[in-house]
Amino acid sequence: MPLHRRIYQFLIIYFLGLSGLMLIKYSVGLSDYVIPGPADVWETWGTVWRRYMRDVVNTLLVAMVGQVISVFLAGLVGIFGRRATWLGNFIKVAAYNVQAYPIVALAPILFILLGDGIFTRLLIAAMICYFPVLLSVIGIMSEPVTEIEHFYRVTGRLRWQLEVKIRAFENLTKLTTVIAGSATLAFAGTIVAEFIAANAGIGYSIRIALYQSDLSKILVALFLIGIVLSIYQGLLEVLGRVVQRTWAGT
Asked: How many structural domains does the chain have?
């Protein structure tokens, strides 16, 4: 999907949601303290958008690193767990069991052990992001490309590295889509970590605005989150297409 179309679609969704919120406000007669009017939202935008943009970029950088970690871990588990051996099944079961614990139950333990700094945010982002990527990688790596693999197997040239490359190349479009989609989970995971107990990022700013009962600031934060995330996902898709063309050319 082209980058401008992704941003355009987000703007439509956001302003439809904002219009629905205003419709509820004026149809029920709620005060500006409960749901701020358009003028209040606009005034808040002019006051906080620069600071919130820095917070969103801070969150994005953490989410990007967390996503890289999750993709790397999912790739390792997917590669070593692709075969129906005892070790492969053990690795998959262990990965599934870790994901069974809700992040809200693990987050307090992580904050106690690691504090409220960047490492905890990275770890939570990676934990939320990696499981969908893991499922896709395991599915792709467990599915043989029969015709190609049979040729290399008959000629005695099929090694596990070549097997992984063949399966990854044949499913490169799926992998690109999954990785681009996982950006949303990485971003959401970072915001959740910041909202729970961190001291930086847009999640922390949303928590402060919630304590102040300032919905205008939350609406501004949601707008900036959506714009930045749309741009990031669009760039990932562009990068994925470049990788596909380059790999296909080689």
From this structure: 1
Q: Which amino acid is at 214?
A: D
Instruction: Write the single-letter amino acid at 188.
Output: A
CATH code for the domain of 43: 1.10.3720.10
Round to whole Å and give the CA distance between 115 and 235. 32
Which domain range does residue 67 map to?
A: 3-248
Residue 87's pLDDT is what? Answer: 61
| Burial (0-12, 13-18, 19+ Cβ within 10 Å), 113 | exposed
Specify the pTM: 0.79
229 residue type, one letter: L
Closest CA to 189 of 67, 73, 75: 67
Burial label, 65 (beta-carbon count in 10 A; 0-12, 13-18, 19+): middle
CA–CA dist 151, 160 (Å, integer): 14
Predicted confidence (pLDDT) per residue in 95-127, tens digit = 666 666 666 667 777 777 777 677 777 777 777
- Rounded to whole angstroms, how far apart are CA atoms 185 and 183? 5
User: Angle at the Cα of 40 (from 231 to 7), degrees rounded to 5?
Assistant: 15
Query: Rounded distance, CA 56 to CA 50, Å?
Result: 10
Q: How far is CA 189 from the centre of its chain?
A: 7
Q: How many CA atoms lie within 13 A of 201 on its CB side?
A: 28
